[in-house]
Amino acid sequence: MLQVNNLNVSLDTLILAKNMSFSLQPGKVNVIIGPNGTGKSTLLKTLFGDIQAKSGDISFFDETLHPKQLSHWRKQFGYMPQDIRLDVELSVLEVVLLGQLDALSLRLDDSLIEQALSALETIGLLHLANRSVNKLSGGQCQMILFAQALMRNPKILMLDEPVSALDLHFQHVLLDHLDQQTKQQGWVTLMVLHDLNLAAQYADNLLVLKEGHVVESGHPSDILTPQLVEQVYGVKAEISKDSQGIPFVRTIRQGKQAQPLSAESQQHTSSNSSKGVERAL
Ligand SMILES: Nc1ncnc2c1ncn2[C@@H]1O[C@H](COP(=O)(O)OP(=O)(O)OP(=O)(O)O)[C@@H](O)[C@H]1O
């Protein structure tokens, strides 16, 4: 279990975690949602050891994150950052292989190449293996970085907005594979998403972040309410359940009020139609 206790994180004058505590269980997909700039990426970087907390503890089973033992700590992680640019003269296969940087030497082990090709095949992008990454589309780069994170055989997998550049098909390829592997391999998976409906579909546990606090956490069916959406985003929403009982969030356009009818159409509706009156209301 990944355990965070009384975490305090600041960047310059910004306080991004205030005595934050939570625990993440193996075999569960944990999804962080929250407003822009609230500190979601900062939290992932802190868990990875890129940003040092002011105080608090982060531990994974019996190991505690210590700034002097970062390399051992990070070996347990697959981490897919928000930035998906791949501006290097490397092939797709080479970039995926970099996920196993520690195991690489001058002579490439066949099993590593097979593992990288298999990661690409799993996500349906084997045909790109020999392409240069700096000629890929944004969505293709994002999928390649996902394959690279899988190559690490992680115990903890963190993904920062992993579907931001993906079309509907690849959103589901990535998230279905993530969900299946998290459960099969017992990974602790933690990802940031902005799309509340994808979060509701894929999260076993939702962590709602705002102003340095986890304001709510739990299964989406239990915690996603119009009140929560308005409290966190300042947006009104209706939430229904789909045929599988998964919450479906539909936001209501702000300032979209019925326009007053012209005198001509008012006459028309009052004399001829009650439907028109309903529409005007
Ligand atoms: N290195 C830094 N130094 C100072 N401030 C930073 C640094 N990195 C990020 N910030 C600030 O910290 C705040 C939180 O940033 P972060 O990227 O963690 O937010 P986020 O919740 O992931 O946002 P988004 O949803 O927009 O990606 C922002 O106000 C950002 O400007």
TrEMBL record:
Keywords: ATP-binding, Nucleotide-binding, Translocase, Transport. Residues 2-236 form the ABC transporter domain. It comes from the Bacteria. InterPro entries: AAA+_ATPase, ABC_transporter-like_ATP-bd, ABC_transporter-like_CS, P-loop_NTPase. Pfam families: ABC_tran. Residues 257-275 have a biased composition (Polar residues). SMART domains: AAA (SM00382). GO terms for molecular function: ATP binding; ATP hydrolysis activity. Residues 257-281 are annotated as: Disordered. CDD domains: ABC_Iron-Siderophores_B12_Hemin. Belongs to the ABC transporter superfamily. Part of the ABC transporter complex HmuTUV involved in hemin import. Responsible for energy coupling to the transport system. This is Iron complex transport system ATP-binding protein. It comes from Marinomonas rhizomae.
